[in-house]
What we know:
The protein is an alpha/beta fold. It contains 15 helices and seven strands. The protein is 53% helix and 12% strand. Strand 4 (60-64), helix 2 and strand 5 (83-87) form a beta-alpha-beta unit. Helix 10 (266-276) runs antiparallel to helix 12. InterPro entries: Transp_IS110-like_N, Transpos_IS110, Transposase_20. Residues 9-157 form the Transposase IS110-like N-terminal domain.
Amino acid sequence: MEVVAESVAGIDVHQKQITITVLIGSSSVQKPKRFSNRFGTTTAALKACGEWLTEMNVEKIAMESTGQYWRPVWQVLEVFNFDMILCNPRIIKNIPGKKTDQKDSEWLADLTRCGLVSASFIPPREIQELRESTRSRKKLTQSRTRIRNEVHNILQRSNIKLTSFVSDIFAGSGLKLLNLVVNGEVITLRKVSSCMTKRMKSSPEQILEALDGVLGRNDLSLMAIQMKLLDDYDRAITELDNLIDEQLAEQSNLLHRLQDIPGISRKTAQIVIAEVGPDVSPFVDAHHLASWAGLCPGNYESAGKKHGSATLHGNGYLKSALVTAAMGAKITKKSGLKDYFWRLSSRMDKQKAVIALAHKILRIIYSLIQDGTTYREYKKDQRKAITLAANN
């Protein structure tokens, strides 16, 4: 195979130590010289590793994205101005056989020397920090949802049917009624009426009957604990929202332009900027970005025949955000994206049409970021006029 770099290093990263293999040799040399070394993962040890690699005149360094262990290694070594490549472990799996750290680092170095390692996208430091904030918010939101579901379960097994008459028991009148239960108060028709608003469709008598359940002592204690956890999660999520707003202060223009796209909410726009960044130049085109996000169907060819397959693995945070945006866009009134969805759903499964719509939204996002333009809505009558003008 053709040699693209004469001095490369492969790093196998773990929590306590890293294993390094350096290959040095020109393209005319069949067997390059091999040098191996091991370093700890403390800052001082990683700096010593960078100095050793500098003495070896290493041009390229490749490492796997192993959990979070690769990040401090990357941050320390990037100061030494190496040409660094972060690669997906799923793509560069080693050949079957006995697996060791040394063999893994050698395999990485061999692939890098021949230019067979594709680099993963590493955003700038400020975008990495924004990404950490948005991902933390999503995890906290999911945890809050689990706590809420547990509260629902306690109410159901206690035969308290409050959720049958109140759409949201964690806000407004629903929360006031729920607190009556949690505080162990004697629930009367007068107390129920004082918690209700005029907009509620149910009568106080119906709510009182729904609250007539048997909440045991243990379930009451569990309910109180869950409600305290919900308060903590609410405060933490609010703090994260404020932090994300601060981190996106310089990207306010892009944030507003993304929200012009049907289905893109403020939080979805924040996730898009956190995962893609304000610059799409690392991606060759919109299709490359869609493939990275996992919104492109896979394909393979065998015996001269091309076969399709399901969408590939990609950036799960960006993919889920865009699918959510597509679900919103397909019900937006007077939207060209809604028309696009229903045209697709007439000839394919609706789930596939949602993925295709998410793909289209991502291509629009790519264009908006690349050109610095705003979204322009094309409705059905405009599309017909353009088609007639083209035919004439």
